[in-house]
Automatic annotation (TrEMBL):
Coiled coil: none annotated. SUPFAM superfamilies: GroES-like, NAD(P)-binding Rossmann-fold domains. GO terms for molecular function: alcohol dehydrogenase (NAD+) activity; S-(hydroxymethyl)glutathione dehydrogenase (NAD+) activity; S-(hydroxymethyl)glutathione dehydrogenase (NADP+) activity; S-nitrosoglutathione reductase (NADH) activity; zinc ion binding. It comes from Zygosaccharomyces mellis. Residues 9-378 form the Enoyl reductase (ER) domain. This is S-(hydroxymethyl)glutathione dehydrogenase. GO terms for cellular component: cytosol. Keywords: Metal-binding, NAD, Oxidoreductase, Zinc. It catalyses: S-nitrosoglutathione + NADH + H(+) = S-(hydroxysulfenamide)glutathione + NAD(+); a primary alcohol + NAD(+) = an aldehyde + NADH + H(+); a secondary alcohol + NAD(+) = a ketone + NADH + H(+); S-(hydroxymethyl)glutathione + NADP(+) = S-formylglutathione + NADPH + H(+). Its cofactor is Zn(2+). Belongs to the zinc-containing alcohol dehydrogenase family. Class-III subfamily. It is an enzyme of class 1 (oxidoreductase). One of its GO terms (biological process) is formaldehyde catabolic process. The keyword Zinc applies. The gene is FLD1.
Amino acid sequence: MSTEGKPITSLAAVAYEAGKPLTVEEIIVDPPKAHEVRIRIKKTAVCHTDAYTLSGADPEGAFPSILGHEGAGVVESVGEDVTSVKPGDHVVALYTAECGKCKFCKSGKTNLCGSVRATQGKGVMPDGTSRFKNKKGETLLHFMGCSTFSEYTVVADVSVVAIDPKAPLESACLLGCGVTTGYGAAVKSANVQKGDTVAIFGAGTVGLSVAQGAQARGASKIILVDINDAKKKYMHEFGATDFVNPTKDLQNGQTIVEKLIEMTDGGLDFTFDCTGNVKVMRDALEACHKGWGVSVVIGVAASGQEISTRPFQLVTGRVWKGSAFGGIKGRSEMGGLIKDYREGSLKVDEFITNRRAFKEINDAFEDLHAGDSLRTVLDYTN
Ligand SMILES: NC(=O)c1ccc[n+]([C@@H]2O[C@H](COP(=O)([O-])OP(=O)(O)OC[C@H]3O[C@@H](n4cnc5c(N)ncnc54)[C@H](O)[C@@H]3O)[C@@H](O)[C@H]2O)c1
Ligand SMILES: [Zn+2]
Ligand SMILES: [Zn+2]
């Protein structure tokens, strides 16, 4: 029996309150309106940004909501005027939309898109309403335009891309955020070149993806900096050449900035913050080579946090910049990443360290903070 045009009962994990575990329950998902797409999510993973919003540190975090933004599935139905995807298509949800028509999209200078930004930030669809409610009839908000922690979700048609159905959905879902964010930051936002030296603070999925992007470009030195020694085992797999744990590997009062400058004869060509810690962001900038070093902020800092450095650092040629979703335009560039993955030049499967049934989602949040785990992929079908 077709579900098209009807509300669907869906398994979901509801974030009712900051700092509390998610509640796994059945919710009601309304059909898609014009320019909207209802997706049956098959696989979703937990990114650090979900944990950050759930913790209450996100100024835009609103509750109750359906979190999740690394997800892939199959289109169940589409609303009026949707031409880019059709029922049955395999898709990845995109938290960075691409409309192709707004000032941002037309600029050719950024992957940010203004089309759904205002409503996405408020947790509603572009018409200002939500498609989710719980069984008591209470409205549940959307998150990052994706809400992949519901088996059925509704997204704007500019926030979804069809992919090659031969790509496994459990891998495709990681291209919805972590892998694409890090890889794109290296090859697009920073545009690392052959022979460059690179330091990456934070060896999670994002940081290790920066490493593989830098390796793809032929960087001569790729230094991972992480306070968790358990991450060291991944260095060679993703192309890093060195690993420094600032809590253990610094001697005689040396700072991490001094250590990195010493290791690279004056500083790095590129550094990346993949921690969200504003002190680390400062170290990353100051470890850059005088005259040309570029530091890219990827990590999401807690509400109210600010970055600082002496202006002289910039006057003497260091550049501070940021990157969202790796500078990648989701609808026009996802196909290329999927192709790279299928041809073996982009590692994705290697980031899947844990697999769980969707109902174990709260354990997946614990995995993110534990030992050597990178990504836990959740499966709705068991
Ligand atoms: N800009 C974007 O588009 C975007 C997209 C995805 C994620 N993010 C952000 O990127 C960051 C990384 O995400 P992730 O999913 O890889 O997270 P993760 O939790 O898997 O990895 C973070 C790593 O940083 C390390 N770390 C923490 N504090 C450190 C410190 N002081 N010095 C060195 N290392 C430290 C941790 O040990 C961990 O290995 C998060 O802040 C996340 O919110 C940004
Ligand atoms: Zn993310
Ligand atoms: Zn746009």
